[in-house]
Specification:
Largest sheet: 6 strands, mixed
Shape: elongated
Oligomer: single chain
Strand content: 15-25%
Length: 224
C-alpha cells in the first residue's frame, strides 16, 4: 500500500487559502483516504467539520487529480489539474463554493418546521367548520399585514411581487370557502411556497408566521 503525502509547504499553501477565504481553519481536519483511481494507494483528504464537504488530493497516472465537495455545479466534482499549481486553483474554487454553501440557510429544513400531519394535537383540536363573515374579514386584515411585510422583499421584482400577491389573494379567498382545518393546511402551504420563492431567511419566515398567529388569535390555534 502506497501512501501519497503532500509537502509541508503545500499544506501551508492550502492553509493560506483557507485563511483568505474567511473560513475558520479550525473547522478543517487532515485525513487519509483510499484513492478513487487506485485501491492500492491512500491520499490526503481535507475534511470540513467532519461532514459531507471535503477536498481529496488524489493522483491519476502519477499526475494530480482532485475530488471535492461542494463544487460549482453540484455536490461532488472532480478535476484533472495534472500539476500542483493547478490543483491549488481547484482548492481555491472549492473554498469559494464551500464558503457560499456554509452561509446558505437551509430553507427546506425551515419548511419542515411548518409541516403538520393529520394526527397532531393541533389539528385534532380544530373543528373543520366554516369561518364566520367577521372571522373572514379578520383573516383578510392579517393577510394585508403579511402583504405589507413582504413588499420589502419583492418590490424590486415585478414577477415576484405578482406571485406573492396571487398567493395571498388565494389565501384570502380560501378563508371564504374552506373549513378552519383545511384553511390551516392551505395557509401553511402558501407560507412555505412564498418562503421558498423569495429565498427568505429563517427569521423572516418566522416573522410571517408570527403576524398570522397574532392576527388569528382566537379564531384558529396555529402551530408553534
Amino acid at each position: 500500500m502506497y501512501e501519497y503525502k503532500l509537502l509541508k509547504s503545500q499544506r501551508n499553501q492550502v492553509l493560506e487559502l483557507i485563511k483568505a477565504s474567511g473560513l475558520d481553519p479550525f473547522g478543517f481536519t487532515w485525513k487519509t483516504t483510499p484513492s478513487v483511481n487506485d485501491n492500492q494507494t491512500t491520499v490526503p483528504l481535507l475534511d470540513y467539520l467532519n461532514g459531507e464537504f471535503y477536498f481529496q488530493f488524489d493522483l491519476m497516472n502519477d499526475d494530480k487529480y482532485s475530488a471535492f465537495s461542494p463544487g460549482r455545479n453540484g455536490i461532488d466534482e472532480t478535476a484533472y489539474p495534472a500539476i500542483w499549481a493547478d490543483q491549488l486553483e481547484n482548492v481555491r474554487t472549492w473554498l469559494e463554493c464551500l464558503a457560499s454553501e456554509a452561509q446558505e440557510p437551509d430553507l427546506w429544513a425551515e419548511i419542515e418546521k411548518y409541516r403538520i400531519s393529520e394526527d397532531t394535537d393541533t389539528l385534532a383540536q380544530i373543528v373543520n367548520e366554516p369561518f364566520s363573515a367577521h372571522q373572514a374579514e379578520q383573516i383578510q386584515i392579517g393577510i394585508l399585514k403579511v402583504r405589507s411585510y413582504l413588499e420589502q422583499f419583492s418590490k424590486n421584482n415585478a414577477s415576484q411581487s405578482a406571485f406573492v400577491n396571487e398567493q395571498l389573494d388565494y389565501l384570502v379567498d380560501a378563508a371564504k370557502r374552506q373549513g378552519k382545518r383545511d384553511w390551516l393546511h392551505t395557509s401553511i402551504g402558501v407560507i412555505m411556497t412564498i418562503t421558498t420563492a423569495l429565498a427568505l431567511a429563517p427569521d423572516e419566515a418566522k416573522n410571517i408566521w408570527n403576524i398570522l398567529k397574532t392576527t388569528l388569535g382566537g379564531i384558529v390555534q396555529l402551530p408553534h
